[in-house]
């Protein structure tokens, strides 16, 4: 993991391992391990909310709830009896009932399998607005993925006033959509975050081959110069502006060859090895992981806040001395996002090692216990 603003990449990389391993709460802890709600699931898209909710359960959540349409509820419930599937999104009384159900959750995932039905998205938007008005839900962690990103692009102010963390897990196309909606920029290539700092294809010279027919050589792959392992300053600033326009507490997770995490003006990179094949459902699993880890990160923030007001004297002097000589640690939200990226990459690698090209999302789901142990050294 690399912090582009601190200038101490090696130290940040060294810091991240211990921080990730400290993220899960103790099994003896009295605080709940996390209750996750997933808003998504429609007639033709029942798998996405299932994978997101099961990913949350498999990595330690104590409860997973799916708020979906009537057509999707039976299928999601049949996939996994551990998941509570409630057909509230298309019911007349669904808006108020769904909001009351969300009071049980610590984190909310919006988007997996939601679809682009205008009426359905309008109901979800109304639900999100009620979250902002509710004192008990105002600090809930929100994760937007898939169709949830499109919902944000069409309703730019829907989470602007949310007091909790807002995580956006965006693919290249979704980055382009957000940039146009929030920055008014049509010139943004959503692939920039994957190309900058990883590999950039350059045109290769043409060569004459068999029977004089000209055929292009393999595309030359150029690695960036040393020191460009992060976003260029202009791009990093642009992504920071994009996150801030969505919400002042937004965390932007840019999915690509390397995953980039933009939070509080800094950019972090997750380049953990993954499988050679990008499996459909990859993002659904990441969203479920992130919902749990976001809650765990919020617990760490609460602990630091409650312990930061007392003390004084020599301990505070020692702490100030350490801070003066070392870069600040990544915020807990960055650690949560990094852990989700790393865990899904481990799952992808293990699934590909086991099943090769035939690997599917269910294979990744089965690898979560092994991947979790690898990621968190448990």
Automatic annotation (TrEMBL):
Cofactors: Mg(2+)
Catalytic activity as recorded in UniProt: (6S)-NADHX + ATP = ADP + phosphate + NADH + H(+); (6S)-NADPHX + ATP = ADP + phosphate + NADPH + H(+)
Region (Disordered) location: 303-331
GO molecular function: ATP binding; ATP-dependent NAD(P)H-hydrate dehydratase activity
Entry EC no(s): 4.2.1.93
Keywords: ATP-binding, Lyase, NAD, NADP, Nucleotide-binding, Phosphoprotein
Biological role stated in the UniProt entry: Catalyzes the dehydration of the S-form of NAD(P)HX at the expense of ATP, which is converted to ADP. Together with NAD(P)HX epimerase, which catalyzes the epimerization of the S- and R-forms, the enzyme allows the repair of both epimers of NAD(P)HX, a damaged form of NAD(P)H that is a result of enzymatic or heat-dependent hydration.
UniProt xrefs under HAMAP family: NADHX_dehydratase
Protein known as: ATP-dependent (S)-NAD(P)H-hydrate dehydratase
Source species taxonomy: Eukaryota, Metazoa, Ecdysozoa, Arthropoda, Hexapoda
């Amino acid at each position: 993991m690399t912090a582009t603003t601190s200038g101490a990449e090696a130290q940040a990389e060294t810091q991240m391992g211990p921080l990730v391993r400290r993220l899960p709460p103790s099994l003896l802890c009295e605080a709940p391990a996390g209750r996750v709600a997933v808003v998504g699931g429609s007639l033709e898209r029942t798998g996405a909310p299932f994978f997101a909710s099961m990913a949350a359960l498999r990595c330690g959540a104590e409860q997973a709830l799916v708020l979906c349409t009537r057509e999707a509820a039976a299928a999601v419930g049949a996939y996994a009896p551990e998941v509570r599937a409630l057909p509230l999104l298309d019911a007349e009384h669904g808006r108020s009932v769904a909001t009351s159900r969300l009071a049980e959750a610590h984190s909310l995932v919006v988007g997996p399998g939601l679809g682009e039905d205008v009426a359905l998205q309008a109901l979800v938007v109304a639900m999100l607005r009620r979250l902002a008005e509710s004192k008990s839900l105002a600090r809930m962690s929100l994760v937007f993925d898939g169709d949830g990103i499109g919902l944000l692009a069409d309703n730019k102010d829907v989470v602007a006033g949310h007091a909790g963390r807002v995580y956006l897990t965006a693919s290249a196309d979704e980055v382009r959509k957000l940039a146009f909606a929030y920055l008014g920029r049509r010139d943004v290539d959503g692939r920039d975050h994957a190309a900058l700092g990883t590999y950039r294809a350059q045109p290769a010279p043409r060569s004459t081959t068999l029977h004089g027919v000209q055929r292009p050589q393999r595309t030359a792959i150029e690695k960036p110069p040393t020191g460009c392992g992060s976003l260029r300053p202009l791009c990093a600033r642009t992504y920071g502006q994009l996150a801030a326009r969505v919400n002042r507490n937004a965390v932007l997770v840019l999915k690509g060859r390397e995953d980039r995490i933009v939070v509080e003006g800094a950019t972090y990179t997750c380049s953990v090895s993954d499988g050679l094949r990008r499996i459909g459902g990859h993002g659904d699993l990441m969203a479920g992981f992130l919902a749990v880890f976001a809650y765990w990160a919020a617990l760490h923030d609460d602990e630091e806040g409650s312990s930061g007001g007392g003390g004084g004297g020599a301990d505070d002097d020692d702490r100030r001395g350490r801070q003066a000589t070392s870069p600040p640690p990544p915020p807990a939200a960055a650690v949560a996002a990094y852990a989700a990226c790393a865990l899904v990459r481990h799952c992808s690698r293990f699934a590909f090692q086991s099943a090769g090209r035939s690997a599917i999302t269910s294979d990744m789901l089965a690898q979560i216990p092994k991947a979790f142990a690898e990621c968190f050294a448990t």
